[in-house]
Amino acid sequence: MALLEVKNIKTYYGNICAxxxxxxxxxxxxxxxxxxxxxxxxxxxxxSITGLLHPAEGSILFNGRDITCMEPHQIVQEGxxxxxxxxxxxxxxxxxxxxEMGAYSRKDNNNIQHDVENVFTLFPRLKERSKQSxxxxxxxxxxxxxxxxxxxxxPKLLLLDEPSMGLAPLLLESIxxxxxEINAQGTTVLLVEQNTKLALxxxxxxxxxxxxxxxLSGKTxxxxxxxxxxxxxxxxT
Amino acid sequence: xxxxxxxxxxxxxxxxxxxILITIALAALLSLPLFDFPQKNLWVRIIGYAGLxxxxxxxxxVHVGFAGMFDLGFAAxxxxxxxxxxxxxxxxxxxxxxxxxxxxxxxxxxxxxGTLVSIPVLKLRGDYLGIVTLGFGEIVRMLLMNLTKITNxxxxxxxxxxxxxxxxxxxKGTHFYYLIFAVIVVLLIVLNRIIHSRTGRAWLAxxxxxxxxxxxxxxxxxxxxxxxxxxxFIGGLGGAIFAAWQGSIxxxxxNMNVSINILCLIILGGLGxxxxxxxxxxxxxxxxxxxxxxxxxxxxxxxxxxxIMMILRPQGFLPxxxxxxxxxxxxxTTKQKEVQL
Lengths: 237, 341
Fold this sequence. Notes:
The structure holds two protein chains of two kinds. By secondary structure, chain A is α/β, with parallel strands linked by helices. Chain A has helices spanning 42-50, 72-78, 95-102, 112-122, 124-128, 139-151, 169-184, 196-202, 220-225, 227-234; strands spanning 4-13, 16-26, 31-35, 57-62, 65-66, 80-83, 157-161, 188-193, 205-210, 213-219. Chain A has a six-stranded mixed sheet, sandwiched between helices. Chain A has a four-stranded antiparallel sheet with strand order 2-1-4-5, covered by helices on one side. The longest helix of chain A has 16 residues, at 169-184. The N and C termini of chain A lie far apart (37 Å). The mean pLDDT of chain A is 88. Chain B is mainly alpha-helical. Chain B has one domain. Chain B contains 15 helices and six strands. Chain B has helices at 2-13, 15-31, 40-66, 75-88, 99-118, 127-146, 148-151, 173-195, 198-208, 210-215, 220-246, 256-269, 274-290, 298-312, 334-340, and strands at residues 89-90, 95-96, 157-158, 164-165, 168-169, 248-249. In chain B, helix 4 crosses helix 5 and helix 4 (75-88) packs across helix 11 (220-246). Chain B starts with a helix and ends with a helix. Classes of the chains: A alpha/beta, B mainly alpha. The A-B interface holds A 50-52, 71-73, 76-77, 81-82, 84, 88-94, 96-97, 100-102, 104-105, 112-113, 130-131, 133, 149-150, 153 and B 198, 201-202, 204-205, 208-209, 211-212, 214-221, 322-325, 327-328, 330.
């Protein structure tokens, strides 16, 4: 049984149909990427999973439980954490306070300190900045913080929305290395990314979204060699 | 000049200097009614009135400063509290419940109404919420004005009961002065506890970024309702105290000016800081009376002072300190110590 099963969901913004029946699944331990151009419905899909938007039709199963109609805070408690697009950090709080806010939903207070140390080993830069207010961090550091904060909720499934946005190429690779490491430590990752090349490089499987529908899916090697993907998203012929 | 300013600032920000100043101010305020000086009753009344606005300011602070919900109709809760007292402790319906019970009923009714109003507007943010609350404030005043059979319309309700405590009847300004003083102290303690609790942290996260707060597992609807109810409760409490003190109330006591004044005083005091509310209320409510000697030019000077103040110190007298969560004072852990060695 897959960890996350999205079955034929249709999500609307008012009258506009943004997802016209999206189906995919994420197995435990995988990195799965959703790729597609602007307006394909990638972010909408993530928002539907986290409960920020509710699909009008279809269902979403997580760990065998139906989470389609749950509210965001309940879904966090089920074990899904999302890193929103564009590095939303609590800019007036310190780095450490941001991390503690990420652990808000947890009941096991004693382990929080230990997990803070854990994310600091993953992102040593954050440790140096632990007392600085998050708004003064650089873009890359804020992205690290947003990921670290999501990890503090101890998710089974981590959703990443465009982690590459606005980052310098050098930082990009280190962030993607981090994502691989997070996955190796046992967190399943669902990655939404416009940088198709990078996304396919670290993911196990991928789905291509186009105007609200899944167009293609498969192992990343197959996608990398697919003519359509090459032409539209990788820019090589 | 700048050097002088900076030494002045460091001098006043030393904790010991601050504590001494606060103690002196508290002692002065507490003993003020005990001395005899010219126009004593007037001064007790002015400061007591400012104290009432401190209570109302703290209520609105929960809405605007803590939870980040813009509220332009706070006078509605003030009015509900006051009329609850008038209904339950006056010859109007010939019900005479004791003050100490009625203030809690008044607060609770205001809280229930506040919750009911906020349910449909939970999804609204910012300015839109401001418009809804503005309308709500006016609706309440209109109802008080026009439901003449119940509220006696613009004639108001007069002859309200005076509170009693251990046989003392509260019939002097001084009594209410001390009552309000005590309520403020209790509110300060309660609010201080709340902002350092789980609830306070949830409000903080909501105010900073509602989406991320939701994704961190915070039930934002619940905490919004809670903030609205708590703020309204404090507003209702203030209303009941006002009604008992004044002895008579009229719908016009609760017009939009009151809401705007309360909002002004918490902005002036420094949005989000419960101590700032005290300074803000003293400045905004007491100053016009202190300037009374200037007669006709009074409001002119007052407005000018407000403008100058907001240009020179837009963050208010006492801006919000960034909250320090419990684990934040990082004492060097054993590991770090080893490294230092």
